[in-house]
Amino acid sequence: MDVLQKAHILISALPYFKDFYGKIVVIKYGGHAMVDESLKRAFSEDIVLMKYVGIRPVIVHGGGPQISKVMEKMGLKPLFIEGQRVTDEETMNVVEMVLVGTVNKEIVSLINQAGGKAVGLSGRDGNMIIAEKMTVYKYKGEDRPPEIIDIGRVGKVRKVNPEVLLTLLEKDFIPVVAPVGVGPEGVAYNINADLVAGALASALSAEKLIYLSDVEGVKDKNNQLISTLYVEEIEDLIKEEIVKGGMIPKLKSARKALSFGVKKVHIIDGRVAHSLIIELFTDEGLGTQILMKDPSERGEFC
Fold this sequence. Notes:
Blueprint: H1 3-12, H2 14-20, E1 24-29, H3 37-52, E2 56-61, H4 64-73, E3 80-81, E4 84-85, H5 89-113, E5 118-122, E6 129-133, E7 136-138, E8 147-149, E9 154-160, H6 163-170, E10 174-178, E11 180-182, E12 188-191, H7 193-203, E13 208-213, E14 228-230, H8 234-239, H9 247-259, E15 264-269, H10 275-281, E16 288-291
Parallel strand pairs: 1-2, 1-13, 2-10, 5-10, 9-12, 13-15, 14-16
Antiparallel strand pairs: 3-4, 6-9, 7-8, 11-12, 15-16
Helix pairs in contact: 3-5, 4-5, 7-9
């Protein structure tokens, strides 16, 4: 690539630099991008580049495979019901140890090595994420009442106090958040990272919410990529079981985030190196963008 081509690439990104300057972008970091060493470095570089062109990134990370691996080493058997990890007190200790003490610190270190100023924290810090216990229902048929299943210290977001994040952003730090919330009497709760990312994006009135996943994006019934998806179409995709598994919490979280002020949500392939930069700063983009047909219907997140 010659010098003129490089200059053209930079100039072509100028409108995006202008559009996103000073804006908050929440990124849910998970999947293969958290495991492959080259992808981890590429992600860290993307985050630092975003910061230096004026974007204010906030990262929420997962860590399910890492938790399961440590549990197995400790002789504990990971158990899942309706897609949720059963989290007793011993498992919760492992969750916090891995997410907050290991995964979070590694991400912070990689971003700092790439030239950023990252700070790691969990939803318990500053009472940032107030959680309540999640109830899981297992349906047994149309004529039978659902079974209520206790899956322990698994929570959902009840309220977000974003002051600590806003303070860090004002001081030019990059917050990296582990998806652990605090409930009544200071009890910790394990929360799905997709849901946490959506809640934080809403509370921060983020310009964008981006999910890094291990798929190209949302697919239709013919297994073709949906480049643009509207909130009003999500329920049908779920009811008709066109989307399944881990895509469901992403879409539900996206729907809620858009309903409470987030401008746009993207689900992109984290297996592609520098996928964040491709999505943000090129005309082509990646994956699926999710929008509201009528933005006037947005509410206010509390």
